[in-house]
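DATA SHEET
Item: assembly model
Revision: 1
Owner: S.N.
Input lines:
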Amino acid sequence: MKVAVLTGGVGGARFLRGIVDVVDPASVTAIVNVGDDLEVLGLSVSPDLDSVLYALAGIADEERGWGRAEETWNALATVESLGGESWFRLGDRDLGLHAVRTQALRQGVPLSAVTARLAAALRVETTILPATDGQLRTWVDTTNGSFSFQEWFVARAHRDPVDRVRCEGATDARPAPGVLEALYETDLILIAPSNPFVSIGPIVAVERIRSALERRRVPCVAVSPLIGGVAVKGPAAGMLQRLQGGTTAAHLANCYPGLIDALVIDEKDADDADAVSNAGVRPVITHTLMHDAPARRRLAEAALDAVAFA
Amino acid sequence: MAGIVVPFRGLAGKQRLTGLTADTHRAVVLGMLADVLAATTKVGETVVVTNDADGRVLAASAGARLVDDPGGGQSQAVAAALGSLEIDTVLIVNADVPCVVPHDLRALLAATPLGGIALVASPDGRTNALSLPAPNLFVPLYGPHSADRFQHAARDLGLEAVAVSIPNLADDVDTREDLDRLQLRAGGHTQAALAGLRLAS
């Protein structure tokens, strides 16, 4: 069975680990958000691609949730002591990957090809694709001004209330090679428990990805990042409240109009099931917190079992 | 692996589903059965109890085993199928829950107390899905208020009994209103039958 997964970083990466525990990793394609990509210290950084890469390579830092395990921070400490840019925390091992990627990009290699090369070097069997090789950047308009995603998320600790999320470059962005093929040839499309606005939003803002989803001939199942109306991590709940008017599973379902057939929600949100139903989406209730490998696997199974293939 | 019994009475079981042409009525009833079987065959060995010719063809192509309906109602039909099962854990799933997905059935199995029974009630208090620890624990209680009666009967036998809230199993289709309400959530076969309905009308 082939599975295509739209995903952001941390939560999505964890979810993908569960998926590749349950189905053949080589039959899975991860289509990853690149709206958060940025340049730090002259290096091209793709935080979500890297979270997915590290998670699937088994070298992610599970406690911290981002970056690599057994990381050291000597380069960053040096940067700081020299008065350099140190707000974005790049570890030593992480930096090595960014250096390789940056060099390749400067030589004109597309991001998708660089990512494939890195995945192969890390012995990852799953196909990891950036949503686009083009320039797509997420901006958040807040009550205190407009910020690039990482500036708002990291430097400003996502405190400013968001009025709007903009995906700059999305209208011109073409899906990266392999993305549309993966969506057309898959048996199932999954949307990882990632932030619908800033993780999945930029992926489906790419016109041809959105239309491929809208015209899908296979089911699409989303997994809610909410537990009891609260995000496990990050600003999803606050953004839902402000941009959708509430933090129930139904508000989440409404973020994906016409794009999903089923929504996997947590047991704590079971009361929202009727409202999800009214949105025309089949609610599937399970335990969604991915606190360890068995829990990740169970959530993956629930998502894969959220539709009955004919 | 669980054994799963799906009783299917054909059109006779869905007399309250009015306002449809005979062809559409049949297509929808069979579509719902197809959606239910798509889920059950992923979770366990499925036995369809029916005398309906189309139902038999559909069940066979879905990979389910067939048992003749002895007549006399749902309890008798279920009892006939249970006699043919050697598996311990048994789910009995109605053929009119078109939203069901495999996870819902696994969730019902997981919620079943050790040695006890679990069920999912319909909004009107009947029983849409029943989980039994052994086929011989079945008591023929289908009908109005059966959800309560199954639980009482189990407790009388000293078994733990729980009613589980699983939306896709609770939502059954008895009437045209049910169908309208659930159409967007129903499985592909039911939706296809309904698309035919829209094209025809």
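QC remark: The mean pLDDT of chain A is 94.
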